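Box S1 | Example of a co-folding query
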Amino acid sequence: MRIVIIGAGLGGLSFGACAARDGHEVVLIDRNAEPGGVMTLAREGGFSFEQGPLILTDLREDEPVGAFLASLGIHLETVRDDRGLSTPDFGLFPPEDYAGPDWRKKRLEELFPADRKGIRAYYRFYDALMELRFLSGQKKSLSNKLRTLRAYLAIKPYENMNCREFTEKLFSDERLRLVFNGILADFCADPEEVQCFTLPFVNTETAFDKRIPAEKDGMLYYPSYRYIVGGCQKLPEALCAYILGRGGQFLSQTVAQKVLVEDGKAVGVRLDDGRELAADLVVGCGAARDFFTGLVGEEHLDDAYRKILRDFRPMEAVFMLHLGVDYDPSVFQKQSLCYYYGSYDLRGAVEKLRSGVYHRGEDGYLIYFPDRHAPDFAPPGRHCVTIYTVCPDRLRDGDWESRKEEYADELIRLAEARLPGLSAHIVAKKIVTAEDYRRLTHMKKSSFGGTVPVWKQQNPPHLTPVKNLIFVGQQSENGGGVPIVLLGALEAYRQAGLADGGGRIL
Ligand SMILES: Cc1cc2nc3c(=O)[nH]c(=O)nc-3n(C[C@H](O)[C@H](O)[C@H](O)COP(=O)(O)OP(=O)(O)OC[C@H]3O[C@@H](n4cnc5c(N)ncnc54)[C@H](O)[C@@H]3O)c2cc1C
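Box S1 (continued) | Returned holo structure for flavin-adenine dinucleotide
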C-alpha cells in the first residue's frame, strides 16, 4: 500500500514507522527541512535549543513508548530527572537528602496545617488513581479485580467533580490549590473545565523527585519522567531514519496543498509545486481545522465531524526565549526545569490567554537548562538557558514581531531574580514567538501542546468521514504530549486496519 503522510511531526512519523515496519511504501511530506515539527531544534550563535517537549514519560523499554521504539530497534539513551515548583510564597524543591516518596505531602502538611485532612484525602485519591492506572495494564485475575474495585470505590465520591470543585472541597487555602491546579494554566484550561481525575496524572509525585522509585513491589508502577540524552529531536530523527531505511521517502521543504478526494475516498495529495502524488491512504496532522477546511474540503465531511471541528478547543501558544550564556546558571537552580508561578488566580490567567492579553511573565514562567542533558547544545564552557511562558496566539494589542524584544527583556528581568547576573552573561539570544511557531507547524493558530483537556470534549477522531483518510497528531488527542501523540498514532494505525496483513481499504 502507498501511504502519503502530510507532516513529519511525531504523529506522522509514528504512523509512518508502523507502516514502514509492515512493508508499506511511505512518503512523508513536511514544510520544514528536518523531521520532527516542534521537536526540531532552534539554533543560534553556536548554541542549540529545544523548541518543543522537555520532560517525557513512558520512555523506559518496559513502558509503552519505549517498548514500541525498542520493537523497531530504536534505543534512545534517557535519564531520569525532576522539576521544581515555586509560588509567590513558597517553593517545593526536592530536599538535598532524599526524604522518601511522600516528602511533598509532609511539606504541604507543614505549610498548611489547617488543610491537613484535605491533603491526606488528596493523597489517598492519588494512590487510588495510580493503583487503577497500574492495574489497567495487568492481568484481570480475581485479586486484581478486587484491587480495582477497592481503588475505584476510593475515587468514586469525586467522579462528578471538576478540578475547581475537587480542590475547593479538599483545601481551604488557594495557595495549596495552585500546587495541584497550576499546571492546568499551561494547558490553557480553567480548573472548572477539567475532570478532577486528571490532577494526579499531571502532578505525579515521581515528576518532582527523581529519587522516588518508579517501581513498587518489584514492578514498574508509576510513570517516570525522563529526558532524552542529546535532546528530544533524537526521537523524530530516529523514526525518520527508520522509515528511510525501509525504503520510505521524505519530501522536505514541501507543502501539501490539497488532499485529492474522489467519490468520498482520498486518492492522493497535491503539492505546492503542482505535483500530484497518488496514494492508497493519506494521513494528515497538525491543525485540524486548517487541514479539514483547507486541504480536504468541508464538503467531504459529515455533520458529526464538522461539529467536532467547530467545538473542540486547541491550546494557545508559547513565547520562548533561548539564551546562550558564558556562566553556569545551574548553581542557582538545582533542577533542569522549574515552574515559577506568579499568581494564584488561574481563572484570570486563562481568561487573559484567551482574550489576547499577554501577562509578560507575571502570571508565571519556566526556566529550563537544555544542555544539562544535551551537553553538545552549548560550546565548551558555555551554557543554554530557555525561559518560556504560555501566551495568546494573537495579541489583542500589537503583534509578536514588533513586541518580542520588549517581552524578552521583561522575561530576562524576571528570571534574573532566580539566576543572578543573567543579563550580564548573555552571549546569544533567540526569541521564538507564536508567529514562528505558526510557520514551524504550518498552523494558522499556534497551539503549543494540542487540545485543551476539556472534560467530555471530543477531538477530531483518527477515522474521518473520507475513506482512506486518517488524522493523527496532537489535535486528535485530549491534552496532547509526546507519549499520547505517539501512542495515538499507533492506535490510528490499528484502527486503519493496516496491521493485520496490510492493504485493507477502509
Ligand atoms: C513548547 C512546547 C513544549 C512541550 N512540552 C512537552 C513536554 O514537556 N512533554 C510532552 O510530552 N509534550 C510536550 N509538548 C507537546 C509535544 O511536543 C507535541 O504534542 C508533539 O510533538 C506534537 O506532534 P505532532 O506530530 O502532532 O505535531 P507537530 O510537531 O506540529 O508536527 C506537525 C508537522 O507537520 C507539518 N505540516 C503540517 N501541515 C503540513 C502541510 N500541509 N504541508 C507540509 N507540512 C505540514 C508541520 O510543519 C510540522 O512539521 C510540548 C510542545 C511544545 C510546542
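The longest strand covers residues 317-325. The two ends are 12 Å apart (CA to CA).
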